[in-house]
Amino acid sequence: MFFHLCIALSSLLLSSFASLTSSSTSASLSIYEVLRSHGLPMGLLPKGVTDFIIDDNGRFEVYLDQACNAKFESELHYDRNVSGSLSYGQIGELSGISAQELFLWFPVKGIRVDVCCLQAILAFSLRDSAEL
User: Fold this and answer.
1) Which UniProt keywords are present, listed alphabetically (predicted)?
2) CA atoms lying within 13 Å on the CB side of residue 34
3) Quick check: 112 and 127 in contact, CB under 8 A?
4) Would you list the domain boundaries of the chain?
């Protein structure tokens, strides 16, 4: 079963995309600033990040103080450790996040942001990142 969970974000979020720039990361940036510098909303990760590692190829690992859930259109579950491959406007090879659809939980394999028509669409992919 392959499908995308799409979330329409408000125009307030769109205004934050206008000020984004792609830049190299430094040790002084938080993971939220790294997300923003890659064209992604800072709210993709919950509060409670205790540490993170990112390499020059965009592979990252994020460590949360505890597992937690977040509510968008669907319920998302974040494990204590989240990892993936970060590139501008998307995260691939994602692990550590699950989405609830009806009564079942599915691993989220990727996240992509599409901006069009004065609206940002956040797509949580339950497929492999090659299919994003």
Assistant:
1) Signal
2) 25
3) no
4) 4-127
Class at the top of the CATH hierarchy for domain 4-127: mainly beta
- State both tokens at 36: 């923003």
Give the global pTM: 0.71
- Look at the block and give the residue holding tokens 């970060």: 86
Q: What is the Cα–Cα distance from 57 to 23, expressed in whole angstroms?
A: 13
Per-residue pLDDT tens digits for 32-50 = 999 999 999 888 999 999 9
The answer to whether 128 and 9 are in contact (CB under 8 A) is: no
* pLDDT for res 81: 98
CB 86 within 8 A of CB 34: yes
